[in-house]
Design a protein that fits this description.
Blueprint (H helix, E strand, L loop, with lengths): L6 H6 L3 E7 L4 E6 L5 E4 H22 L6 H14 L10 H20 L4 H29 L4 E4 L2 E4 L3 H22 L8 E8 L2 E9 L14 E5 H7 L2 H7 L14 E8 L2 E16 L4 E12 L10 E3 L1 H5 L8 H9 L1
Parallel strand pairs: 7-12, 8-11
Antiparallel strand pairs: 1-2, 2-3, 4-5, 6-7, 6-10, 8-12, 9-10, 10-11
Length: 340
């Protein structure tokens, strides 16, 4: 079932009414206002929408990099296919239609992906919303440009009196484009989200958990060195007391801190702009399921508040995974530090 999130589409489309149901042919005569009568076959309607839903859910799973069970995707698709029967109901007010479709979308995400955390659910729902938005936009374009006589839109459900092969081909092409787009966005991203990491600096080492955060795009403006963010307890174990007091905001920079390792990093947050006090450390080793990679000369900044989940104490950004292992590129950070 295609549920359009465009209220405009709901308003712009000619409404209609159900005229009669043919029990022998399993079809319903539907009359869009101002146009000729359209015959809707119930089995075709449901099958088409099951097919479309399956690909929309699959595309959403690609965007958030999930691998849901096919049985769950199928269950979600069948649920959406059954819901497409609302096309035969009397015209539903816009507000109620949007509310019904929102609730159904939530249900489909819960069925297909079974998220265990609210944050995960929000990401999955946003991805599903996005692919529906794209597909609904495509359908709106088809309606406005070609005005196909065999296309019926009512109560945010769509029926196509078109060749099934053409519909299948169009859906597959849309899915392929979304797949390619997802791979281009994620080409430098790891498959995992949580990692074991080892942070080293001047003989001190800390082993902890790190989260891969696509939103952490911080880097040093001079050397383009990536910045990782750690909780206070991690930073305290890696840097001398005097430098830690400066990074923690408790004291001015000590006079003997002349090695050029201190950095001030501009950062944008929801609350506005801020300056992070950070330090250049020797290395970070990211330990994944398949391999471990060491990145030298990384900038470490402190998070003023503990990370809410408690499952990790370090945030890694995409730039950590873009640098070659051994970090020849990042030697610029060390040279820049030596000149400070």
């Amino acid at each position: 079932m295609l549920r359009s999130f465009f209220v405009a589409l709901h308003n712009a489309t000619n409404y209609g009414e159900v005229l009669s149901y043919n029990y022998k042919k399993n079809s319903i005569d539907f009359l869009p206002c101002g146009v000729i009568k359209t015959k809707i076959y119930v089995d075709v309607l449901v099958v088409i929408n099951i097919f479309i839903n399956y690909f929309l859910l699959s595309a959403a799973s690609l965007i958030v990099r999930l691998k849901p069970k096919r049985i769950r995707l199928a269950a979600g698709a069948f649920t959406g296919g059954a819901y497409s029967l609302v096309i035969f109901l009397p015209n539903i007010p816009n507000v109620l239609s949007v509310f019904m479709n929102f609730c159904m979308s939530v249900l489909l995400v819960l069925i297909a992906f079974a998220p265990k955390k609210i944050t995960v659910f929000i990401k999955e729902f946003a991805a599903f919303f996005a692919v529906n938005f794209i597909f609904a936009g495509l359908m709106l374009a088809v309606w406005l440009v070609f005005k196909p006589s065999g296309m019926v839109y009512n109560n945010a459900a769509v029926y196509f009196d078109i060749d099934v092969k053409l519909l299948v081909l169009s859906t597959v092409v849309c899915y392929a484009v979304l797949t390619l787009f997802s791979k281009l966005l994620k080409r430098n991203s790891p498959d995992d989200k949580l990692f074991d990491v080892k942070l080293c600096n001047k003989g001190a080492a800390v082993f902890t958990k790190a989260l891969f955060d696509t939103g952490n795009l911080l880097s040093d403006g001079f050397s383009d060195t990536p910045v990782i963010i750690a909780e206070r307890s991690v930073v305290k174990k890696l840097v001398p007391e005097g430098i830690f007091s400066f990074i923690d905001g408790e004291a001015a920079l000590p006079i003997n801190a002349d090695d050029g390792s201190i950095r001030l990093i501009p950062a944008g947050t929801v609350g506005g702009e801020s300056i992070l006090r950070a330090v250049l450390i020797d290395s970070v080793t990211v330990i994944g399921k398949k391999e471990a990679r060491e990145v030298k000369n990384v900038i470490l900044a402190e998070s003023k508040t503990p990370f809410s989940s408690g499952d990790y104490s370090v945030l890694l950004g995409p730039k950590i995974f873009e640098i070659r292992e051994g970090n020849q590129k990042n030697e610029r950070a060390k040279k820049t530090a030596g000149k400070d």
